[in-house]
């Protein structure tokens, strides 16, 4: 399903991946210094709208994939309300005899929404960016050494092969009558049984791959042409303007509600 969204032709999918990465870092850097609950809440709402209308991602899927971030954000509210570093003065109610202060809840909500914003922008980046295009962008636009760029790309391509090898190994062990024992200890024993052959296979593949890449000149020591060229476009300017305006408006507007 990820590939379906990454390959779509919506606005966010056409933005240079390097620019989306820089936008994600800019959002994180801006939110680090925000401690009120309204600013991250508004940015989270805007981020979800961008993901839906500009990225073509259904709201139901955004809500589903955001569940871990929601739970993570709720832990901030709970910890700050129950175990604050310094308890606030306005006591609202008590839980198990522990007074819950308004100031601590506001701090927890702020941190919770902040983590939700970070998660939503990470989702935006992952769902609208092809990994291959991202690596090409890092090499061509970010001047990442091809030695590392193509190496990471090749390693990413190897992940499905390891998954298939793991499945074949499990079936081979079943045919030989080794079976699979349940429980935590059984799981640990199985991991030890599979880990060494998988590690040996990974080292062997990595060695062959490194030799093949060096023999074909993927070491960054010469100028190369590219089959897939990632260029900057006017849509990148529009995206950078939109993100900048959102952050500037929120930073100016928060002076009114802080």
TrEMBL record:
GO BP terms: cobalt ion transport
Main localization category: membrane
KW Protein biosynthesis (keyword) present: no
Keywords (A to Z) from UniProt: Membrane, Transmembrane, Transmembrane helix
Segments passing through the bilayer: 21-49, 61-83, 90-113, 119-139, 237-257
GO cellular component terms attached to this protein's record: ATP-binding cassette (ABC) transporter complex
Keyword Membrane: yes
Subcellular location: Membrane
Membrane-topology descriptor: Multi-pass membrane protein
InterPro entries associated with the record: ABC/ECF_trnsptr_transmembrane, Cobalt_transport_CbiQ
Protein name: Energy-coupling factor transporter transmembrane protein EcfT
Taxonomic source organism: Salicibibacter kimchii
